[in-house]
Amino acid sequence: MNRPVKYRNMFLQVLIFIVTLGLYSVYWYYQTCREMASLADDHDAEPVLWTILLFIPFAGLYSYYKHGQLFEKISDEHFNRWILFILWIVFCPVVWVIVQMELNKKATPVVVQESRG
């Protein structure tokens, strides 16, 4: 599974979120689930299913819980999944910042090659 984690600029993400009228958040949710499952080496994780569940009333709560569970596994501070779950319900932009900051710490650095001529 070992896919690299992508570094994402928070300011640029907010701008894309606004321009896409919120659709970027669905893409971000799926990508972060996929990246966290890869980091946690969790072969049972279902990022596609969890993303689809977001659109089903009450099933989205299960999806939030599973997202928090994955985050708890990869977090350096072992952030509690229940706190993240409650934050998803109360004020989800906080979750966005917390998760993205942690993933940015684990992001694969981009190697820039110099051209020698």
Structure write-up:
The protein has 117 residues and is mostly helical. It has one domain (10-105). The protein contains six helices and no strands. Helix 2 (23-40) runs antiparallel to helix 3 (47-53) and helix 2 (23-40) crosses helix 4. The longest helix is centred in the first third of the chain and has 18 residues, at 23-40. The protein is globular. The N and C termini lie far apart (38 Å).
Run of helices and strands: HHHHHH
Summed over residues and divided by their number, the pLDDT gives a mean of: 87
Number of helices: 6
Radius of gyration, CA atoms, in whole angstroms: 15 Å
Estimated helix fraction: 55-70%
Taken from the alpha-carbon principal axes, the silhouette is: globular
Q: Using DSSP, what is the number of strands?
A: 0
Uncertain ranges: none
In whole angstroms, how far apart are the ends?
38 Å
